[in-house]
Amino acid sequence: MVNIIETPVQVAQQRERELPPRESREVVFDVSGLTVSYGGNPALRDVSLEVYKNFVTAFIGPSGCGKSTFIRCFNRMNDLIPSAAVEGTILYHGQDLYGPQVDAVEVRKRIGMVFQKPNPFPKSIHANVAFGPRVLGMTDDLDGRVERALQQAALWDEVKDRLDESALSLSGGQQQRLCIARCLAVEPDVLLMDEPASALDPISTTRIEDLMHELKREYTIVIVTHNMQQAARIADMTAFFSVQVDDGKRSGVLVEYDATPTIFTKPADKRTEDYVTGRFG
């Protein structure tokens, strides 16, 4: 059960993480000098960091600091916004994600995304999970693929006898796990999660968090969350973003990025300390 009394700092203090040394970590995303603008106004400025394989990496910070903008850069979702412009570099396993030869559809197959609110299609449970594989021509053993994805999403036992029922008949927490299964069905490398539990009750939130712990054995997970306790519980690395005002214009900046216990118990920047202790934001 999620403990709503302990502070994020207390939660982080209780979790000892034995992270591999930096030199032995495999870099999945290498971000350098990333700036994202909408209509010429920077929403996020000059971000540089690395995201590591089989880690859960959390982005925290106040509203409007560019967290969602940033996570959407990893699977080129911002391409779908006409006024968006991305400068800088994101290397994915060493390849420039925004290079001219890169197919954005292939990027989104390899880098799946789960959104804040569950968004199942108005189809059956089976059809939801099978949708991506069908579109991508991955139709070999489709029923087996659907079953494996639902098992990975810890949903199979709850829905195995009702696969032909509407996905909209599921509870909110089940719908979110279904959306995770829909991502997993196309065998991605990375899961992006933008506030995946913010619309869920504490029990469903705990299931999603437990699921992330299991999934990071096979996948790299990047999550945006406003819930600092959640970041303290699940993340291996945490990036704190804040808002900077220049000439009256607000933009997001990366303040600090480090192992999660360090961010919550020994932050290097006063702004981080003020945020995680509740004195700001």
Q: Keywords for this structure?
A:
single chain; 281 residues; alpha/beta; Rossmann fold; ten-stranded mixed sheet; 11 helices; 10 strands; 33% helix; globular
Summarize the structure.
This protein has 281 residues and is an alpha/beta fold.
Describe the fold and architecture.
The two termini are about 25 Å apart. The protein has a ten-stranded mixed sheet with strand order 5-4-1-2-10-9-3-8-7-6, sandwiched between helices. The radius of gyration is 19 Å and the shape is globular. The model has no long low-confidence stretch (mean pLDDT about 90). The protein has helices at about 10-15, 65-75, 105-110, 125-135, 140-150, 155-160, 170-185, 200-215, 230-235, 260-265, 270-275, and strands at about 25-40, 40-50, 55-60, 85-90, 95, 110-115, 190-195, 220-225, 235-245, 250-260. The protein contains eleven helices and ten strands. The chain has a single domain (about 10-15, about 25-275), classed as Rossmann fold (3-Layer(aba) Sandwich), CATH 3.40.50.300.
- What topology, given as strand order, has the largest sheet? 5-4-1-2-10-9-3-8-7-6
- Number of separate structural domains: 1
Kindly estimate the percentage of residues that lie in beta strands according to DSSP. Answer: 25-35%
Helix content: 25-40%
Helix/sheet category = alpha/beta
Shape: globular
Fold-level CATH name: Rossmann fold
Q: What average pLDDT do the residues reach?
A: 91
- Briefly, what CATH class? Alpha Beta
Order of helices and strands: HEEEHEEHEHHHHEHEHEEHH
Radius of gyration: 19 Å
Largest sheet: 10 strands, mixed
In the CATH hierarchy, the architecture is 3-Layer(aba) Sandwich
